[in-house]
Amino acid sequence: MRVWLVASVLSGVPSTVHALSTDGDVLRSTRAAASLLSGTGVIRGAVVHLGVSAFWAAVLAAVDRRWPLDARTGAVAGAVIAAVDLEVLGRRFPAVRELHRAAQWADHVAFGALVGAVLRSTVDGRDRSAPSPDRVPPA
Q: What is this structure's pTM?
């Protein structure tokens, strides 16, 4: 859950920065996501985005069990996801096709890197920064 939440929220930073720096619409990609379900609007787009992000986070978590990911390998996985999402599936949707390609690819790479980084920050489901049960100082 933490992996999905962090990656879903923070992976949109590259396209948001791009939109802000070019006086673009920061919610354009969110509305484009709604078109995947023949819809429009920010709320529907956010729901679609969260669902797609949950799917890819689950896929990467499953991959991580066999081939451990980190931020670097996660970024590579994010590029593969971008190819599938944007170039294979997304090309069928005009609203997705019209998005700035580099910014969207950067979002996907960031998503993968964040998933890999968060997965590496945990060990057996515990936060690495938390003391392990055998190292808890006496009270």
A: 0.86
